[in-house]
Write a structure and sequence with these properties.
The chain is built from 8 helices and no strands. By secondary structure, it is mostly helical.
């Protein structure tokens, strides 16, 4: 079996596993959010978050150049802003539908290899990031350690972006971007599946 098939198989298995989990789990387990560790684990418990964050890395790789670092940085930064909104009790309406939309839209942007100016891409991912951050923090208990919890979900998010970039790097080493575009299609399809469950 070729490396490309190995990567494609692993990616397909991951995406299938994610779609078998209950959607929109951004709010699960927050009663224990008192430190860095729960914050780090929180983004990994919801398939909607995992898919969207990996897709940011994939889309950045499609655009290349400054997008490789600017879009992940924009996402993490504005996600922390959204988290602060949630901790302050500011209500962001339609956050959950917006999060599901982010999975579908980002997947389609990767699938279609959409090229946009770096600033436009940063604003786009940033808008979604605010919703993701809000969902991570909106239901935190009052005794939560907000700063360390936020540091945890910021690091996990950065690593998920790096995973998307890593998939793209491996695909490029094989001399093809087909895997990246296919991953975008899988992300979009999973987003649609999560939206209708």
């Amino acid at each position: 079996m070729t490396p490309t098939r190995n990567i494609a198989g692993a990616l397909a298995a991951l995406m299938m596993a994610l779609t078998s989990v209950t959607p929109a789990l951004a709010h699960a387990g927050l009663e224990h959010a008192t430190s860095f560790s729960p914050g780090f684990l929180h983004p990994l418990t919801g398939p909607d978050h995992v898919l969207a964050m990996v897709a940011v890395g994939l889309w950045a790789s499609v655009n290349g150049g400054r997008a490789l670092w600017a879009w992940p940085v924009a996402f993490v930064s504005l996600m922390l802003v959204g988290g602060a909104f949630g901790m302050m009790g500011i209500t962001l309406p339609m956050a959950e539908p917006g999060i599901l939309a982010s999975v579908i839209v980002l997947g389609l942007l990767v699938l279609t290899a959409a090229h946009v100016p770096v600033a436009v891409g940063a604003l786009s991912v940033g808008a979604f990031a605010i919703l993701h951050g809000y969902a991570h923090a909106a239901e935190l208990p009052t005794q939560a350690a907000g700063i360390s919890y936020s540091a945890g979900f910021a690091l996990a998010t950065a690593l998920l972006h790096a995973a998307g970039l890593g998939i793209a790097f491996l695909s490029a080493r094989e001399g093809s971007r087909v895997l990246v575009h296919a991953a975008g299609g899988v992300v979009a399809a999973c987003g649609i599946a999560l939206a209708v469950i």
